Amino acid sequence: MSQIKGFVFDLDGVIVSTDKYHYLAWKAIADQEGIYFDEQINNRLRGVSRMASLDIVLEKAHKEYTQEEKVALAAAKNDIYRESLNELKETDRLPGVTDTLNYLKNKGYKLSIGSSSKNTPLILKKIGLDTFFDAVSDGNNITYSKPNPEVFLKAAEMIGLKPEECVVVEDSTAGIEAANNGSFLSVAIGDARKIKSSTYEINSMDELIKLF
Ligand code: B16
Ligand code: MG
After folding, report:
1. What is residue 132's three-state secondary structure?
2. Which of 139, 153, 175, 194 has CB 3.0 to 4.6 Å from 170, enough for a Cys bridge?
3. Ligand 1 centroid vs 37 CA: distance in angstroms?
4. Mean pLDDT of 19-42
5. Is 90 exceeded by the pLDDT of residue 2?
6. Cα separations (Å) of 103 from 100, 108, 204?
């Protein structure tokens, strides 16, 4: 464990839960288009980029959508989603997040974000963590979505560490696969625990204090 010098935290599902807002926004789009959508389908969108999420939502569509229509639907979803982010506040950080982040920072670990979301800067601001991390890698600076490790590799590079020196903390199966693909150690929380391919599993963020 002594080679560990830093962490890459996924955002949605690890630091804060915006699941219900993503769900409601996609549900509104699906209803408008007459497409079946439920919580189970929504689970498959975890950690997946906006356009890749739309492709999953459209699997149940009864017609083909042009690229132009897809871009418009993704933009409409994002407008609904961003509107609901207005409600986010500091107390929406997930249980144990504040104490655990402070503990790891005080121990000298470099801390970064590795999120697929293009809304990362807004979310971090709303929950009061916009100046806390040493680096933020997100949907705005990547070409390939998880399970490609790009977003984590860029985060590690930004904090000046090799993947082997970092632990990725993730709630999505795509994210744990991305961590494995990038040779990171990984900690699975929430939904990601089901694939059993992470280095560690935790039930809540404060369990990191016992591990590191
Ligand atoms: P946006 P994460 C991911 O965030 C979400 O889990 C996923 O549901 C969403 O589609 C993706 O961000 C893109 O989000 O539309 O805001 O760019 O878990 O990687 O922090
Ligand atoms: Mg996530």
Report:
1. coil
2. 175
3. 18
4. 96
5. no
6. 5, 9, 15
